[in-house]
Amino acid sequence: MTSPDPHRAVEAVWRIESARVIAALARMVNDIGLAEELAQDALVAALEEWPRKGVPDNPGAWLTLTAKHRALDRFRRRDTYQRKLQEIGRDMELRQESAEAELDDALDDHIGDDLLRLIFTACHPALPAEGRLALTLRLLGGLSTAEIARAFLVPEPTVGQRISRAKRTLADRKIPIELPPPAELPVRLASLLEVVYLIFNEGYAATSGDDWTRPSLCQEAIRLGRVLAGLMPAEPEVHGLLALMELQASRIPARTAPDGTPVLLLDQDRGHWDRLLVRRGLEALRRAGELGTLGPYGLQAAIAACHARALTPQATDWERIAALYRLLAHLTPSPVVELNRAVAVGMAYGPARGLEIADGLQDEHALRGYAHLPAVRGDLLARLGRSEEAAAEFRRAAGLTRNARERDLFLARATALSA
To answer: What are the DUF6596 domain coordinates in residue numbering (predicted)?
Structure first.
């Protein structure tokens, strides 16, 4: 039981084990807020005890056992111990020692199911998107309120309020901490995957602030994706999402210059792409295809795979990408998908064809204020030699984006075209 820095050990163990501890407790008390509170009690105990006695050989088990004892103490203090035993199917006449032993066994079993229950509950459609994001990162990522606030560039009290409201909504609506019934699984799974992908996207292309990317959020989303793939190995869209995230994340080392300046896809040094992530992503995509027809995430992963397989921009199979976007638009109609298809069609069949699609999106309400619409039009106009119009579009895009790096990129394109 030795450690050179117990406080850092506590932090590391908490990040790894907190979701399992909270998941096990939530199953027993059927209250996410109470489960997190009990787990936090165990964390406080570790911060007090480990610096004095050293880090235990199995710190995760120590946290879980301590949290279980806190749960038992809480039940006794509330005079609801016997009721809780009855709720979990225990005979009310069992001796206390036997009850504690069985409760220990219950908490230690079905770790996978416990995590799935927690994930599905944190991503319940009854919660607003920002609440699902914050609660997922808090419970499953082990991130503090301050860390979540920094990641999304919002005030810490705002994040705290979102987490509190999410827990209160779950409690007030008496939403059980359980796996959804088969009939609800598609909708609930879609909500869960959406949350994970939103976390990834905020890391891959930050919506605001001074950084072009936030790799730590991408890493957290990929970690959650791998957990889901292990817990739901037969779901093709889980593997499709994991493939998409890994293939896109493989480009992150090449997406910025040493000074932080953004580097666009066609200008990236593909030698800097993470080939291990590429291999993992292609393998996850293969697995998704073996399990069934590719869904929206699988199709996006197939598009990313076209880029990953091309050793140079010129080798990219843009015709296949355009065809995949057409399939994606049929499966999940969206102005953003159509805008991406405009880019692919412009690369495959010429900028005039792409511009025709992009022009047809200018009255889309969902794209008002979306910086990438004028940016795409600007690029297509520039390739057609209509430099003044293109520069105006890039200036418009710069006025719409909230990301400082992206704004600089658009203004630089406008300046170069004007010159």
So the answer is: 188-288
